[in-house]
Prior knowledge:
- It is built from 11 helices and 20 strands.
- The protein is α+β, with helices and mostly antiparallel strands.
Amino acid sequence: MIRDFDITIVGGGHSGLFLAGALAGQGWRLALVDPQPPVPPDGPPDGRNLALVRSTREVAERYGLWSALAPLACPVEAVRVRERPGGARLATDMQELDGRPFAYGIEHGALRRALAEALAGLEHRPSFFQSHLEGLARDPDVRLLTLSDGRRLATRLVVGADGRGSRLRGLAGIRLDAWSYGQAAIGFVVAHERPHHHTVHEWLRPRGPLALLPLPGRRSGITWVEPEHAARALVAEGEDALLRRLAEETDHILGEMRLASAVGSWPLGAQHARRYVAPRLALIGDAAHGVHPIHAQGFNMAVADIAELAGALARAARRGEDPGGADLLLRYERARRWANQQRIWMTDGLNRIFSSEAMWLRPVRSGAIRAVAALPPLRRRLARSRMRLL
């Protein structure tokens, strides 16, 4: 037996859930495929955290999702960047722009649960299939999906939101450019003595960036990048040594700290799909692109993909057009691939410049930051580019 759908989303992580929420009111017959339960069970925080920039909030508001996220998110009202070892500093406050937050800090697991619960509460939520994608075939008018439990789906459009190791991308034969940085990110949440004042603190260091992201209450998310061997050693030293090193690296800015989550670590690399579309198929988010965390771009790039694709599909629904039409998909690819390529180059370049031990680069880095700090129009322009991806 084959089930028929207009649009099937493969992947029930942040991007897949967000896209499903954006499409739920458009009148399509929707399906969502993911091996995890539709609403993940409550569990201890895994330590990952991310910043939702202003354009991401605007897209979430457009599709009625922000009300589910707002209680879990902490507004970012200021950013403080310090460069080491040169000592250059850059400060930006929301009053310099329009008085609204630059971004919002949120925990990874809390974001996924909130999106899943919001989707489960919708009247026109998608049909959910708790399974893996096993096979992909193509008929003239549909894509045929075979799931690991033997069920088969026919869909006029299939969207890959299944992460960096996308099974759908592989089955579609879409090639990937990928590279490693030889670094690893350590992620965890701390509760702390002093208030964070809704401020992101970032240290740009030759070993890799270290950032403190404000979370609700007196808690902050830590993203700490080191060479892979050093990251493994830090995690292996245990909680007391990790927090002691963190306090030293961050100038004791948060006062006394304690762990409020597990400590996770993962290797860092970047990648970019050579195509975002194939007949009746599109890629979004990490299935299409992956970046270094230095500029907090990853999930926000995914939301920009979603806004473009969901907008195109809304127009197609109003006109009675095919959701998997070639023109629609090619317009989506043209709108997003080049924009994402520029963000990948930007994050790659920033990481290579600031994570280099080359002596000749030190005055260049410090001079660049001091120049931006001394020129308010340039500082404001950079702040706007960081918080808007649309």
